[in-house]
Every structure is written in structure tokens, then in C-alpha cells.
Write a structure and sequence with these properties.
Blueprint: E1 9-10, E2 14-20, H1 28-37, E3 43-49, H2 65-77, E4 87-90, E5 94-97, H3 101-110, E6 118-124, E7 128-135, E8 144-158, E9 168-184, E10 187-194, E11 204-211, E12 213-214, E13 217-218, E14 223-227
Parallel strand pairs: 2-3
Antiparallel strand pairs: 1-14, 2-4, 4-5, 6-7, 7-10, 8-9, 8-11, 11-14, 12-13
């Protein structure tokens, strides 16, 4: 088993990334499912709104080009010909149509971050977030980066135009930024990130992921931890 997380941190066994858009009429069922998953401690459910449907008549108010770039990176890693919404990526390795509830839940039931031997802890001090990572020998089959993920707990959007015109949709765990803190090595390392450099938003939350990347293509998530509370 991986080392236990420190106080104030919990360790999900699966990371579920949802690529969605306010301009996508197929996305609301997936958005509702991610609202449910966000309440589970065993899953880090992240919502990553993308911007490539903005031309359809509604500019997604939460979308980020960085989210679109991350989705394209997964397409390269998984050798997919195209990207789409709503797409779920489970633990950086499994592609599932995110509106297919049974398939998403089955993928989560079979998933776990791994391999064993990577422990993560996050603590929030007055000036900085401190991330402590411990990697045991054999736990890193390839170089991996420690990522700080910053997200808002909940966002509600009234959509005025486009395919979802007239609908009000609630989104959970909307990713605002991802910061590469450094490469993880065997042993214990500490990383710090100044709280003053975090995006300004209410209900801001933080998580950490260990994930390899080759040629801007994300690989399987090796470990994750979530700060229990605001950051």
C-alpha cells in the first residue's frame, strides 16, 4: 500500500477528468454525473471546460485553451484521431464517453492510481502551499511530474445562446490552473507554491497529481491527493 496521507489530505484511488462545454447539447448528463462524483472521497472528479465549440454561438464562460491543449495531449497519448465532448479520461489512461454513466462507473470501479509506493501530502500555510512527496524504490517506472491542480468547488452558469440556450447548468470542481512543480525522484521531496500566485476565486480547492508526460502527451496518473478544505 502507498504511504498514508498526512492530516488534512485524502487520497483518491481514481482521477476522473471531464472535458465538457457549455455549447455541447450532449454534455449536461455528463455534467450531472460529475456533480455526483465530486462528492466521493475515492474519486478526484475534475471538470475541464474546452473552448473549441465557442464558434457555435455561445462562448463558454469557464473554458480554457489549456484544457483544450490537455485534451489534445491525451488524444496523442491514446492515439485517438480526434477530440470530442463529453469525454472522460480515467487515471490518465482510459477514454470513456462521459455521458455513458454505466461505463464511467465501471471504469472507476476498475481503476486505481498506482503503482504503490508514492505518498503525497498537502498543507496550507499562511504564505504557501507545501507539498510533500515520497517515492519508494521501484515506484517510478518512468520520470513523472508533480502537478498542483487548482479548481473551484462549484460554478452555476445560465446559458443564453447556442445548443443549451435557456438552461442553467451546475459544474463541480472546475479546473482553473495546473502548475508543474517539478520532477519526482525516489526519496522524499518538498515543493512550495505561493498562495498569492493562485487564481482569485471563491471556494478554491487544491489537489496534487503525479503524472508522466512525453512530448506534451500526459501519461497514466501514478498518485493523487486532495487538500481537505479550501486552499
Amino acid at each position: 500500500m502507498a504511504p498514508a496521507a498526512g492530516a488534512g489530505t485524502y487520497t483518491p484511488v481514481a482521477v476522473a477528468e471531464l472535458f465538457t462545454s457549455q455549447g455541447c447539447s450532449s454534455c449536461p448528463p455528463a455534467d450531472r454525473l460529475w456533480n455526483e462524483l465530486a462528492r466521493r472521497d475515492d474519486v478526484l472528479a475534475l471538470t475541464l471546460p474546452v473552448d473549441y465549440w465557442d464558434y457555435l454561438g455561445w462562448k463558454d464562460t469557464l473554458a480554457s485553451p489549456a484544457n483544450t491543449a490537455r485534451q489534445r495531449g491525451y488524444a496523442r497519448a491514446l492515439q485517438a484521431r480526434s477530440i470530442y465532448t463529453p469525454q472522460a479520461i480515467i487515471n490518465g489512461a482510459i477514454d470513456v464517453v462521459a455521458s455513458r454513466r454505466a461505463e464511467v462507473l465501471a471504469a472507476l470501479a476498475a481503476a486505481r492510481t498506482g503503482p504503490d509506493g508514492i505518498g503525497l501530502d498537502i498543507s496550507a500555510g499562511p504564505q504557501a502551499l507545501t507539498i510533500t512527496a515520497n517515492a519508494e524504490p521501484g515506484s517510478l517506472p518512468e520520470p513523472a511530474t508533480v502537478w498542483l491542480v487548482v479548481f473551484t468547488g462549484e460554478e452555476t452558469v445560465a446559458i443564453g445562446r447556442g445548443e443549451n440556450a435557456g438552461r442553467t447548468i451546475r459544474y463541480s470542481n472546475v479546473v482553473r490552473a495546473m502548475y508543474a512543480l517539478g520532477e519526482l525522484h525516489v526519496g522524499t521531496q518538498r515543493f512550495a507554491y505561493p498562495r498569492g500566485s493562485l487564481p482569485e476565486a471563491a471556494d478554491m480547492k487544491c489537489a496534487v497529481m503525479v503524472q508522466p508526460s512525453k512530448h506534451q502527451a500526459p501519461g497514466p496518473v501514478r498518485a493523487a491527493a486532495v487538500l481537505d478544505g479550501s486552499c
